[in-house]
Design brief:
Blueprint lengths: L1 H15 L4 H14 L1 H8 L3 H18 L15 H13 L22 H19 L1
Length: 134
């Protein structure tokens, strides 16, 4: 009975909205506030999914809302003046790594090339000179 009732109300809404499905949906939603029988007929096939979603949402929300116990902050191993001076020095230095990017920051100064590297570059240069003269 409830399925037929819902279909009749939907046909009525389509007729009143001149076949416009958007307006018919809006009209039906409005009717459900006043007609619990219509709401039940429309929701009955989907009730298991609706309830499962609601239960899952509440259960997940409870897991998230458990308060985390914060650890006591550790004290500084230096005086406040030394700490402030380190901050100022870091702000003045352009090569200071950004917070959280320490591992990917550029080195503060260029490392010196090894003798092996210098010899390899000289060999490449000599080879290129001999290729150009041919």
């Amino acid at each position: 009975m409830s399925r037929e009732y819902a279909e009749e109300r939907i046909k009525e809404a389509l007729k009143l909205s001149k076949g416009n499905p958007t307006k018919a949906r809006q009209r039906i939603i409005g009717w459900t506030f006043e007609d619990p029988k219509l709401l039940q007929a429309l929701a009955r096939p989907h009730l298991t999914g609706i309830v499962a979603h609601a239960v899952n949402r509440v259960a997940t929300k409870q897991d998230i809302e458990e308060p985390e116990v914060a650890e006591d902050p550790k004290s500084l191993d230096m005086s406040a003046a030394t700490f402030g001076q380190e901050i100022l020095n870091a702000l003045q230095n352009n090569s200071t790594p950004m917070f959280g990017m320490e591992s990917s920051a550029a080195p503060t100064r260029r490392p010196q090339a090894s003798k092996k590297h210098i010899e390899a570059l000289k060999q490449i240069a000599r080879k290129n000179k001999s290729d150009d003269s041919e």
